[in-house]
């Protein structure tokens, strides 16, 4: 009995194993039959279908590339068509504006050469009228004057330096570079394409009109009135000419607009340099060396008036003047002696009245001032009788004994005359140096301030003259 029980259990196990195998085969066959079919030829990846799969994918890539190329060409054609339509619409709009809008006067200038609506032009012109461009404005004191900053094609002379900026440097900021380049090019556009109101003939009946370029730009000045806009004074000159072209532009927080364009001839403009003096013969001897080099040898259109206070060292001053006169055959000087205490305002008044040849441009100068021939031309260009006086901002040098303390001997004076942050600063608070015409000076109500640097500024700002 036990053996039959064991045999029955063994047969049962084998039967279960056989059923399990049969079920596995059926499941496998079911999976083969019900599996999803693959795209294409249905070949499984492997050695047999490998070459056919590469060709298939290459064909797909080729098809996609052709599709994208066709799409790109279609888009290019559409863009070209839109550009053409936009140009046609712009031309139609421009023609309509020219018919409906009156011509802009010579005061209006835009770099884009497009006409603006009347209301916009009226607003821009009103900003020019409000600004101190064409005529002066009454100011409470000298400190109400908005100073100009000067620039050339390479450098900008900055009054406000702070901790990072320098008194003379190339414009670092891109917006400032772009602004000055745009202004210079706009001035050239005004000169080379003058309006009828400018009075410039096309060819003067002789030949073609002379064209100016960027190399003819000499110097410029600009200042910004924060509630009105920025004013630009530009000067151009050909190397072989004696005349300057002066262009005034204004940017009323909008496009550049032309205010004035004129030709300035300074070839016959004499400058009477007036120097009040008391003692300081060594400084005067050094001043005369610079005067000899700049005024006598280079400029040759100056007169020197020295107003000397007191009798001490008067003979030395006379000796210096006579020595320069003998060596250079220069006799255009006047020495006025006053037996009084030094008073700079009185000395300037006496020196101005000592001139008896009519109208003249005067430069009030101190004995320790160093100037160049280019400055004398700037003095002539920026002063206009009855309209404008010129107050140059002086660069004041620090004590050379301190600046060059690490050297045994300070360098010559010519080598010290550099615009660097560690060598000096712009004295924008002083108005002692000025270029103005004699009639403008004498017609003002004089109030002398002994040993002060502001003898005339308080009265000049109350007149109709523009302070530059």
From TrEMBL:
| Alphabetical UniProt keywords | Coiled coil, Golgi apparatus, Membrane, Signal-anchor, Transferase, Transmembrane, Transmembrane helix
Q: Where in the cell is it found?
A: Golgi apparatus, Golgi stack membrane
Q: Which residues form a coiled coil?
A: 65-99
Q: What is its EC number?
A: 2.4.1.-
Topology in the membrane? Single-pass type II membrane protein
Q: Name one GO cellular component term.
A: Golgi cisterna membrane
At the top of the EC hierarchy, this enzyme's class is: transferase
Q: Which GO terms describe its molecular function?
A: glucuronosyl-N-acetylgalactosaminyl-proteoglycan 4-beta-N-acetylgalactosaminyltransferase activity
Q: Which InterPro entries match?
A: Chond_GalNAc, CS_glycosyltransferase, Nucleotide-diphossugar_trans
Could you confirm whether the keyword Transmembrane appears in this record? yes
Question: Gene3D superfamilies from the xrefs?
Answer: Spore Coat Polysaccharide Biosynthesis Protein SpsA, Chain A
Protein family: Belongs to the chondroitin N-acetylgalactosaminyltransferase family.
Name recorded for this polypeptide: Hexosyltransferase
Q: What is the name of the gene encoding this protein?
A: CSGALNACT2
């Amino acid at each position: 009995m036990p053996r039959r029980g064991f045999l029955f259990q063994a047969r049962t196990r084998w039967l279960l194993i056989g059923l399990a195998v049969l079920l596995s085969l059926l499941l496998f066959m079911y999976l083969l039959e019900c599996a999803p079919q693959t795209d294409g030829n249905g070949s499984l990846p492997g050695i047999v279908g490998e070459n056919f799969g590469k060709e298939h994918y290459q064909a797909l890539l080729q098809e996609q590339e052709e599709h994208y190329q066709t799409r790109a060409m279609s888009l290019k054609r559409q863009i070209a068509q839109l550009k053409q339509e936009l140009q046609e619409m712009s031309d139609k709009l421009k023609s309509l504006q020219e018919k409906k809008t009156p011509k802009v006067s010579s005061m209006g200038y835009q770099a884009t050469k497009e006409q603006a609506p009347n209301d916009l032009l009226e607003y821009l012109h009103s900003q020019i009228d409000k600004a101190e461009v064409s005529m002066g404005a009454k100011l409470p004191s000298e400190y109400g004057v908005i100073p100009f900053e000067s620039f050339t094609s390479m450098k900008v002379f900055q009054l406000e330096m702070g901790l990072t900026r320098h008194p003379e440097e190339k414009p670092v900021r891109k917006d400032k570079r772009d602004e000055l380049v745009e202004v210079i090019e706009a001035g050239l556009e005004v000169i080379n394409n003058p309006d009828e109101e400018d009075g410039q003939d096309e060819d003067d009946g002789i030949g073609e009109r002379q064209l100016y370029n960027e190399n003819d730009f000499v110097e410029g000045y600009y200042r910004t009135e924060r509630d009105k806009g920025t004013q630009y004074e530009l000067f151009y000159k050909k190397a072989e000419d004696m005349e300057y072209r002066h262009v005034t532009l204004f940017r009323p927080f909008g496009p550049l607009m032309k205010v004035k364009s004129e030709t300035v001839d300074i070839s016959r403009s004499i400058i009477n340099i007036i120097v009040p003096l008391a003692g300081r013969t060594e400084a005067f001897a050094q001043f005369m060396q610079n005067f000899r080099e700049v005024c006598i040898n280079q400029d040759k259109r100056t007169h020197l008036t020295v107003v000397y206070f007191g009798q001490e060292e008067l003979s030395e001053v006379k000796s210096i003047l006579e020595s320069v006169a003998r060596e250079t055959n220069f006799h255009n000087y006047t020495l006025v002696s006053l037996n009084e205490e030094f008073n700079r305002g009185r000395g300037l008044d006496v020196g101005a009245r000592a001139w008896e040849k009519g109208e003249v441009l005067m430069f009030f100068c101190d004995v320790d001032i160093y100037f160049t021939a280019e400055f004398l031309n700037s003095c002539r260009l920026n002063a206009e009788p009855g309209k404008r006086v010129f107050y140059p901002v002086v660069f004041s040098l620090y004590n050379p004994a301190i600046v060059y303390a690490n050297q045994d001997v300070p360098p010559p004076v010519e080598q010290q005359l550099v615009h660097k942050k560690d060598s000096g600063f712009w004295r924008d608070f002083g108005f002692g140096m000025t270029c103005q015409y004699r009639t403008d000076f004498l017609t003002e109500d004089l109030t002398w301030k002994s040993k002060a640097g502001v003898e005339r500024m308080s009265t000049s700002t109350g007149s109709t003259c523009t302070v530059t």
